[in-house]
Every structure is written in C-alpha cells, then in structure tokens.
Design brief:
Elements: H1 3-18, E1 24-32, E2 35-42, E3 52-54, E4 58-66, E5 68-72, E6 75-79, E7 84-87, E8 92-96, E9 103-110, H2 112-121, E10 135-136, H3 143-153, H4 161-178, H5 188-203, H6 211-218, H7 222-233, H8 237-255, H9 260-266, H10 272-283, H11 287-296
C-alpha cells in the first residue's frame, strides 16, 4: 500500500531499535456529527500478549497494511489488507499478532443512533443492522473505497470524509446482506500457514506468486491450499494477489506522475492492456481517468 505500508515498517523498525513494548497510535483524520475516522498504527507483535478491548461505537475499520487475528462474539477471522473489521457498539474484542508484527487500519466509529439512521435510510431491515460477522473480505466492491481512504490518509488527495463515512456504511451493509457466511472453519495450523503467505504476498505484491509456489511455501497441496486460503481470507489466492497489485497501483497513480506503463510493470503486470482492463474492472475507470479524477479533487 505504498506510503501507508512504509510508515508502518518504519514504526516497527523504530520499536525494534528502542526495545519498547508494542502500542497502538491513533491519529484522528476527521470528525463529524455522529462519526469519527482515525488512522490506527499498531506495532504489536508475536511477543505481545493480546488483551481485551471494547468498541465505543459501531466500528467499520479498513485494514490497509499488515495482518492480524481478530476475535469477537460473532467469530474469529484473519484480517488482511483490503478487508473490513466489523464491531458492534459496546462489544468486547481481542486482536492478536501471532503470525507477524504490526498493522495499520483506518477506523470509522459511528454513534449507534447515527449508524441506525444510515442503515434505515439504506433500506436495511432492523434485524440485519447488527453485525453478525466480524469481517468482510477484500472484495471488488470495496476496493475503490479502500484506495480512496488510503490516498486521503496519506495526503495524496483531499477526501470529503463526511461523504466517505456514509458511503462506507451503506456499501458494507449492502455487501453483508448479499453474502452468506461459510460455516466451515480452518484449523489453527492452516490459519497460521495462510497468515504467513498473506504477509509474503503483501511484502512483494509484484512477484509472480503462482498457486504452486504459494502452496509449496505453505507446505500444502495446491487443492488444499486453494480451499484453505479462501476459507481464511474470503477470496482466492489469485484474487488476493490481483487486488494487492491494483491497490498499490491506485496509490502510485494518486501519489505521483510516474508513467502508467512503469506503474503497471512495477506492480506485477506484464501487459499494459491487461493492467488497464483489470484496473477499470476494479475501480470503474481506466488508470488515466482515475489519476485525473483524484488529482483534480
């Protein structure tokens, strides 16, 4: 995720140099009537013991770098870049970093009455307004929102956060009402292996990352790895790699004037026409139009 991930790595290196305990550093990006959005940079790692926390409001947090385990009353999931963490107001939760240090989230906290009003306006039935899941996987429907939030948090483009938080709530509720949860839960060992592979992909999204290579790195058969990866992350390995590359490309487009062909090649696309098609499918605009749009705001 470009600058977002670099700043996380710098914070982790600083922690290692100083030998201090892990911590979560919040930075308020914007507040409004019934909502607040904060940049949460976390340097906890495998050596830090998880502890219980509580959501003050209804929480929808976009994971933009790193990965971690998240547990609440509704379940336990692996949170990876591009996915959403979900929490109900007053709900206790626990985050753990057994498989790697650090993460960064852009977290929106909604006052319960305000979120209830947004859900009603979106046509969501009352029985479906409380989150019964703890995660939304990194889906195509969410990619433009996550990329826009990252660009705004990193200073690459001004972001109307008051509009953004409304759109995020509506999009999240829409995805939840349309999806069905897979009840099959992977073992702890499988979870651990996939978590390590996710970290490997996120560190080098431009690398080839074939199914065979990823399965061998996880010490699984291709069939078992494909099935397990999808259960843990919510998407297939190919979809995860593709979206990691496209998010990186979107930030490069918003953050500078590099040639589109160079961005495509740097992000792991061997053909510019394939990059243009994938980008347009994901974000609803070709790379040139996307850059013009975000830099014009």
């Amino acid at each position: 995720m470009g600058k977002i991930a670099v700043e996380l790595e710098e914070a982790l290196m600083q922690r290692a140099l100083e030998g201090v305990p892990g911590q979560t550093v919040p930075r308020t990006l914007a507040t409004g009537d019934g909502w607040e959005i904060r940049d949460m940079l976390c340097t906890f790692g495998p050596q830090d013991r998880p502890f219980e926390e509580r959501h003050e409001g209804v929480c929808i947090a976009m994971v933009v770098a790193g990965s971690f385990g998240y547990r609440a009353d509704a379940g336990r999931e692996l949170l990876t870049p591009g996915s959403l963490l979900l929490g109900n107001a007053g709900e206790c939760f626990e985050c753990g970093h057994r498989h790697g240090a650090g993460d960064r989230c852009l977290s929106v906290s909604y006052a319960p009455a305000y979120f209830e009003r947004l859900a009603a306006d979106a046509g969501v039935r009352r029985s479906e307004r409380a989150f019964r899941r703890v995660r939304v996987p990194p889906l195509r429907a969410l990619s433009p929102l996550v990329a826009r939030a990252c660009a705004g948090a990193g200073g690459a483009m001004p972001t109307p956060w008051d509009e953004f938080v409304v759109e995020l709530a509506a999009r999240t509720l829409n995805v939840l009402t349309e999806s069905r949860r897979n009840a099959a839960q992977p073992s702890a060992a499988a979870w651990s292996r996939v978590a390590q592979i996710v970290r490997m992909i996120d560190s080098e999204p431009h690398a080839p990352h074939t199914l065979g290579e990823l399965a061998r790195a996880a010490n699984m058969s291709e069939f078992h790895f494909l099935r397990t990866f999808r259960r843990v992350t919510g998407v297939t390995p190919h979809q995860y790699v593709l979206r990691a590359r496209l998010r990186a490309a979107a930030l490069r487009l918003a953050d500078g004037a590099a040639k589109i062909v160079d961005i495509a090649l740097d992000c792991g696309f061997n053909d510019v026409s394939n990059f243009n098609h994938a980008f347009r499918t994901e974000f609803g605009a070709n790379p040139r139009a996307y850059r013009a749009g975000v830099q014009r705001v």
